[in-house]
Each structure stands twice: as C-alpha cells, then as structure tokens.
Amino acid sequence: MQIAFLTDIHSNREALTAVLAHARARGAQRFVLLGDYVGYGPDPEWTIETIAGLVAEGAIAIRGNHDEAAVGGVNGMNSNAAQAIDWTSRQLSKASLDFLSKLPLSVIDDDRLYVHADASAPHRWLYVVDGEAARHSLEAAETRLVFSGHVHVPAIYGLSNIGKLTPFRPQPGIAIPLLAQRRWLALIGSVGQPRDGDPAAGYALYNDYSAEIVFHRVPYDVETTAQKIRAAGLPAGLASRLFAGH
C-alpha cells in the first residue's frame, strides 16, 4: 500500500491542493497527516474542512503545536506565529476547533509511530534537529519506524542494532529502502512552509510492501498564497518567506 505522509500544511490551500493531486496521481491509497494544519497561512477553515474530509475517508491525523495553540491559546511562540494563531482562531468555526481539540498526539499503526515532534515527549513539542535528538526520539519509540514533522526540513535517520546512527538527506524522487535491520526516523518536511531553501511543497510516499520511502517536491502557486497572507493583514514576513523556502 502506498501511504502519503503530509505535515506542516499551515493553512496553505494552494500547496495542499497541489500535494494531494500529486500524491493521488502516484497511487496514494492512504493519507497520514502529522499535524500543524493551521498557523502562518491564510486558509485555515478550508484546510481543516479538507483534513476532516480525508479523516472521514480513513486518513489518520495527528495534532501539532499550532493546532493546539489555535484551540487553547498561544504559548511560547514568536510574535509572527502568535499573531497568525490569534487571527486563525478567529477564522475557525466551532466544528473546526472541535476537530482540532480531539486529535491525538500520536498513533501507533503496525510497525509505525506517527507523531508531530519528538517521540519521547509529544506534548513538549521538542524539535528533532540533529542526530542526538533523532536518537532520543527513536529510542523512546516502541516501533521500528517513526514518522514526524515539526522541523519543516526533510531528513532520515537510521539506527543500527549496534547503536550506530546514520543521517540521510533525501533527494526528491529517489527511493530510500528502510532496511529491516535498522530502525528509522523520517522527518517529512513541510507542505505549506518548507525551510530547506526549496519553496516547493514537500511530502513523502511510503510503500509498506517494499518498505521504501520517496520524498517529493511539488511546485505550487506561491504568489497567490502570499497575496492572501498580505490581504488578511498577517505579518508580511510570512508571505515573503514562502518564496525563499526558509
């Protein structure tokens, strides 16, 4: 089965629309959504309605820190993120807020753990930014595979049975076998606000039969999203950063 992993959509309608079409065209049979559907971007209500529709069709959705903040209030965010969450909370319907409030922090699915941030303490929203953090997250998980978001940069870490951790930087379109003799952490990147210098939306397809994962980048209409961010009165930097992918 081909499983499409999407994360950090951040209310970016154009990016999500492009990614869903790309994944379906490549045979995605199931969607796993790793959190942060809102925040930063201009289309929170549409995004949640779309995610809820996917869940109704069998997708799994995890809660992210921006989703939690939209429901419960800002805590520890920078000024741009806090301003965007305040605006977002006022755009969301009661049904969408209720949907976000009921999302789980993590889900175990066969040999896979789905979590937005670090697996050792999902509620603390710790960033997995290096090998030490990746090891900590992997060692805390009970599963062979961990799929996460939060950092907006795609990466893979493999942990051997003798404790050697190897980082990989995935290249778009190139299949990476998640070999059975290792445990693996896959950081999926971001649909709606990539931060690796590439503005194209990012997601990954995992084949649970061949145990191969392929990361994809999908160009989308960045200008339209940026214009909507400005029109909503959100911080201008949230628009300009989309063009640079940072």
From TrEMBL:
Signal peptide: none
A Pfam family assignment: Metallophos
InterPro entries named among the record's database cross-references: Ap4A_hydrolase, Calcineurin-like_PHP, Metallo-depent_PP-like, Pesterase_MJ0912
GO cellular component: cytoplasm
Domain of life where this protein originates: Bacteria
Residue ranges of domain Calcineurin-like phosphoesterase in the record: 1-154
Entry GO MF terms: phosphatase activity
Protein name: Metallophosphatase family protein
Organism whose genome encodes this protein: Zavarzinia aquatilis
UniProt lineage: Bacteria, Pseudomonadati, Pseudomonadota, Alphaproteobacteria, Rhodospirillales
